[in-house]
Amino acid sequence: MQTFELEGYDFIELNKLMKIMNLVGSGGEAKQFIDEGLVLVNGQVEKQRRKKLRTGDVVSFEGEEVKVQ
Q: How confident is the model at residue 22 (pLDDT cuts 50, 70, 90)?
């Protein structure tokens, strides 16, 4: 499991996290995969592209997991 540090911010948006962590090649790809229901947040399908992720949230996509800290 990878981790992402918020570094003083309150949240990061789901589509931005996916791009920063190289889970996708572009923001457009992130939006497409989210719209198709292929991304899980805390074990639930998440269809909000700009879902605010906070400390403790876990994003799962294609066998990869990222925990927000």
A: very high
pTM of the model: 0.93
> What is the CATH number that goes with domain 2-68?
3.10.290.10
Phi/psi for 45 (5° steps) reads -60, 130
Count CA atoms closer than 13 A to 47's CA, side-chain side: 3
Residue ranges per domain, the chain? Answer: 2-68
Give the pLDDT confidence of 11-21 residue by residue, as tens digits: 999 999 999 99
- DSSP state at residue 18: H
